[in-house]
Write a structure and sequence with these properties.
The structure is a homodimer of 160-residue chains.
Chain A: H1 2-5, H2 8-37, H3 43-55, E1 58-59, H4 60-67, H5 71-83, E2 87-91, E3 99-103, H6 105-125, H7 131-146
Antiparallel strand pairs in A: 1-3, 2-3
Helix pairs in contact in A: 2-6, 3-6, 4-5
The structure holds a DNA duplex (30 and 30 nucleotides).
Chain lengths: 160, 160
DNA sequence: TTGTGATAGTTTGACATCAAACGAATCGCC
DNA sequence: GGCGATTCGTTTGATGTCAAACTATCACAA
């Protein structure tokens, strides 16, 4: 409670904005999730499929930095996708430390079907904001996210 | 890519805002996390301690709705906190289905020490925004979060 | 050539998380 | 009072998540 009052108005406004910000993010994520899971894949798995679809085959390291997750995590998620037959691992002949992850035909079909649905769900989710508000939100979030100094965007959260 | 262009400008703005919004939330969360974990508790455990500190002893159900997590999850988190001696379960004599979770003295000491630090870390995190911007952000997030229609705030994401 | 250091991926152990199934207790209503 | 419906918490099984330890491979230098 000492802190509650410290910084007076600014402090109170900040904590209020923080709570609403985090709640909104969780809330939007939660409402979007069913659009993904009803296809039988998790949100993270969808992220992998989408990255492979839009960027092309890549190794675990790149996948991890796209999704901002650790490499150990990538192993697990790719395992699960491979077991479902949606991606396949291909050993790299040049550098045998590397494994390149590819979409299978089934994986490609799935992501092609899912992506448009997900995009339109997002548009619908944000339809409560005007164009001006969308722009403002993006600008403020960019500032909040970039924040160098500690754990900026660059290193992707020290995931590694 | 079909979708990329659909809805033209509005669609592009929306997807851009969406990505920045989600990234910013993840980023802020990730930068705040070390302030919590260095005390030897996880973010969720901190949430439980904070709720118990500010609201008082409560049962699993209320804890779950405060934190927006499922009741099965509450069981696990309270288990871990109890094992660390930070909370204790007390059987409710009136309604023997219920278990009331209380802070132990150690738990109370810990949350009293952590909370101010966390609050000031949040203030620092948001110091890149002006007061007017904080207010705007809070307003937009409230609209985004409230979103009735599907999975509003009321049910806490169907966690149950 | 060898060996030292960096890099890629996997494994391990701990925690979080959900949905669904389950057992115990309570409530509603006749 | 008694029985079906509901509520509470736990358990189970699957997934995600991290950090740290480990294995294999590569790069480069002495």
């Amino acid at each position: 409670m000492a802190i509650r009052n410290r910084g007076s108005s600014r402090g109170r406004l900040t904590l209020d904005a923080f709570v609403k910000f985090m709640r909104a993010a969780d809330s939007v994520r939660a409402r979007l999730e069913p659009h993904i899971t009803r296809h039988g894949v998790t949100t993270t798995q969808f992220g992998v499929l989408e990255a492979l679809h839009h960027v092309g085959p890549m190794n675990h390291r790149n996948l991890g930095s796209k999704l901002l997750v650790s490499k150990g995590n990538v192993t697990v998620v790719v395992d699960n996708l491979e077991r479902r037959g949606l991606v396949k691992r291909v050993a790299d002949a040049q550098d045998r430390r590397q494994t390149i992850v590819h979409l299978t035909p089934a994986g490609r079909r799935l992501i092609r079907r899912m992506f448009p649905q997900q995009a339109s769900a997002i548009v619908k989710e944000f339809s409560v904001l005007t164009v001006a508000e969308l722009t403002t939100l993006a600008r403020l979030c960019r500032r909040l996210g970039r924040q160098e100094g500690r754990g900026g965007r660059g290193r992707g959260t020290s995931r590694e």
